[in-house]
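Re: the request from the purification team.
They wanted to know what the chain is likely to look like in 3D before they choose a buffer screen. I agreed to run a prediction and write the result into the notebook, where they can find it.
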Amino acid sequence: MIKGLNWLSTFTDKKVNSVKHGGLCVACLSANAFNGLCQPCRDDLPVNRWHCRCCALPLAFPSSELLCGDCLKHPPPFDRSCIPWRYQYPLDGMIGRYKYNGQRKFGRPLISDFAGFLEKSLHHGGATRPEVLVPAPMDAKRRRQRGFNQAQDIAETIGAQLNIPVAPGLVQRVRQVRAQRELNREARLANLRGVFEVTSTVPERVAIVDDVVTTGATVRVLASVLRDAGAREIQVWALARTPG
C-alpha cells in the first residue's frame, strides 16, 4: 500500500514499469503491478463515488444524481463531467510529480485507468461519445518551463485508446494570465475573461480534457467559448476533482 511518495527518486526510474522486473508499482515498488500500480495502491486512490451529476463535485452523502448548490445557482455551460477520483492523498502527490516534476511514470497508471473508466462510462454510464477531445490550453511560457502540457498528454493517450481525435489547437490562449493556483473561483473567472479563442470549426459534441478541476472556472470559460462557437453537447473529462 502507498506509504508516501517523497522517498521515490529518479534512481528507481529504470526499474519502475520495466518488463524485466515484471512491472514495479510506482508507489511502493511491489513487483505485482498492473499498468504501473499494484492492487493495494490502486485501492488507496480516493474514488469520487458520490458527486454532483454535472460538475462532479464530491458530495458528503450517497448520490450521483443530485446537483450541487453552485450548479443549481449558476448552471455551467457544460452538460456533464466524467471525473473518477477526488484530488486527495495519495493521488494529489502522484499528479503533482507528473505535472510539475515531469515524472511521467506517476501519470501513466492514472491515465491508463482513466481511459478504462471512460470506456465504461461511454458504454454503460450514459456518457455520449464526443466527436473530438479538446485539451485545456496552456500558456506558451508555462509550457516551455514545464516541457509539456499535461492536458494534451492525457487527451492524446485516452484519444488513442478510445479512438477519438484530439484537437489541441482548436482553442488557444490569446493572452497571458496570472497563475490560477492561489485564486478563488471569482478571481479565476475574472482572470480568464477573454483569454481563450476558438481557431476553427467546432463539432457539436466535444469533451474538454484536463488533469484536475479545482473551482471549475477554467472549464466553465472553455465550455462557454466552445458553446458560443457551435458546440451543443460539452463534457468535462479530468483525472480528479477537488473537494468543496
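For the purification team: The chain has one domain: 45-241.
Please add any questions underneath this entry.
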